[in-house]
Amino acid sequence: MRIHYYLEIDENKKIKCLKCGEVICDATENYKLYVPQRERLPSDIPGRRPKKPEFATYYEYYCPGCFTMLDVETKPIGTPPIHDIQIKV
User: At residue 15, does pLDDT exceed 80?
Assistant: First the structure.
């Protein structure tokens, strides 16, 4: 079952990357806790001129197998990853 542009739940109830086949975690878990992430302040992005002080940051999530970007979210600094895909399997 496809749950995201590059993510699916396979027959073993695991979330995996559609591009490279890397198994990330169980389907009931937040995959963002198991993948590499990059934090970027808005001021680090070319062309962005945020107001100071910066209160939010961009979090980029990547597949651990092929480093395809899986998601980007904006949230307050220090906030845990948003569990945006929750599927009962």
Answer: yes
Contact assessment for residue 51 and residue 44, using Cβ atoms and an 8 Å cutoff: no
- pLDDT, tens digit (0-9, with 9 covering 90-100), for 39-72: 887 777 777 666 666 677 889 999 999 999 999 9
Distance CA 40, CA 68 (A): 17
What is the CB neighbour count within 10 angstroms for residue 6? 17
d(CA 56, CA 39): 10
State whether residue 15 is helix, strand or coil: strand
Q: In the chain, what percentage of residues exceed pLDDT 70?
A: 90
Residue 73 CB partners (closer than 8 Å, separation 6+) = 58, 59, 61, 81, 82, 84
